[in-house]
Amino acid sequence: MKFTAEQIAGILEGVVEGNPQVEVSKLSKIEEGEEGALTFLANPKYTHYIYTTKASIAIVNNTFIPEQDLSCTLIKVEDAYKAFSKLLEYYNQVKLNKSGIEQPSFISDNVNQGDNIYIGAFTYIGNNVTLGNNVKIFPSSYIGDNVTIGDDTVVFSGAKVYSESIIGKNCVINSGAIIGADGFGFAPDENGEYSKVPQIGNVILEDFVDIGAATTIDRATLGSTIIRRGVKLDNQIQIAHNVEIGKNTVIAAQTGVAGSTKIGENCQIGGQVGIVGHITIGNNVKIQAQSGIGRNVKDNEVLQGSPALSYGDFNKSYVYFKNLPKIVKTVNDLEKNNNGNN
User: Fold this and answer.
1) What's residue 309's pLDDT?
2) Residue 340's pLDDT is what?
3) What pLDDT does residue 289 have?
4) 76-93 as b/e, with b when 16 or more CB fall inside 10 Å?
5) Rounded to the nearest 5°, which phi and psi values hold at 198?
6) Which contiguous run of DSSP H or E holds residue 330?
């Protein structure tokens, strides 16, 4: 798909300097620009590339004044970085703007379908499913019985949404994600053998939730596992049964949250963090990567380590640990001197 500089300037409310009819069909970094590509300049450290780039169009700030001749057409905007981000979003919307039902696919007779939906080939849609307007379900996906998916939500190829799950509006579920699988519930008997505890709850994703590729969110034993509005989960995260994650919390890859833990709003949790079950983590908490959380956490705490300490205490302790060989040598020398004086 091709766009002219004039069309792009219209989308960004910018001003063209150069050829308004020059066309682009791809995006690139400014240092890797080639003919037919669109790029941008926001960081002053990259200014020298504007004079050597082969990109056909460059988005720049209004304040940019060339000091040499340019081979590219400029689109001047208030904020080049924000404008390019807006353009990426627009491009993504165009790219994902599919509609219709591809075959082969299976759709139960009693599915309630909204307007302008897209269902890719080899997709299964179960009984009593409700699909809102503009829902996009890409090929080879599974939507179980009694699932509700809100307007403008995208389910990418190979994702699985198990029965009874409720997905809000403007959500993104990436490939390989599994929403609503059974929680890890087993009870030992007198012989030490384990029997499965039925998991009869569901998963609720509120609006504007993003779920990364291969992330799993287990259904509740009873009630709901709840991911609140605006939560962003990275790839390969495990969220166990009956967990609740508060609004606008973000969690990086390979983190695991055990059952029935409650995480507050606006938290930032790094990669490979392990969080035990049945605890409460407050609002605005920051947890550094590879930390282990085994206790309740108050609002606004910053933690690191395993078991996690306050961020400041961890750094002080690490300095001591790093210098431990020197400290031990000093102690040994002092003991030798004392023994020699006796």
Assistant:
1) 62
2) 65
3) 95
4) bbeebeebbebbeeebee
5) -55, 135
6) helix 324-341
Catalytic residue among 87, 141, 241, 258: 241
State CA 33 to chain mean position distance. 28
DSSP helix/strand/coil, 274: strand
CATH number of the structural domain 3-95 = 3.40.1390.10
Chain centre to alpha carbon of residue 154: 14
Q: What architecture is the 100-314 domain classified under in CATH?
A: 3 Solenoid (2.160)
241 is catalytic: yes
Q: Is residue 303 within 8 Å of residue 311, measured between CB atoms?
A: yes
CA gap 148, 170 in Å, rounded:
13
For every residue of 276-327, DSSP letters joined together read: -SS-EE-TT-EE-TT-EE-S-B-TT-EEEETTEEEHHHHHHHHHHHHTHHHH
- Low-confidence residues of the chain: pLDDT under 50: none
CA-based nearest residue to 33, from 69, 73, 2 = 73
Dihedral angle of Cα 265, 269, 275, 280, to the nearest 10 degrees: -20
Classify 139 as helix, strand or coil. Answer: coil
CATH 3.40.1390.10 in the chain, residue ranges: 3-95
Determine the pLDDT at residue 292. 95
**What percent of the chain is modeled with pLDDT above 90?**
82
pLDDT digit string (tens) for 196-205?
999 999 999 9
Give residue 257's pLDDT.
98
What residue ranges of the chain are covered by domains with CATH 2.160.10.10? 100-314
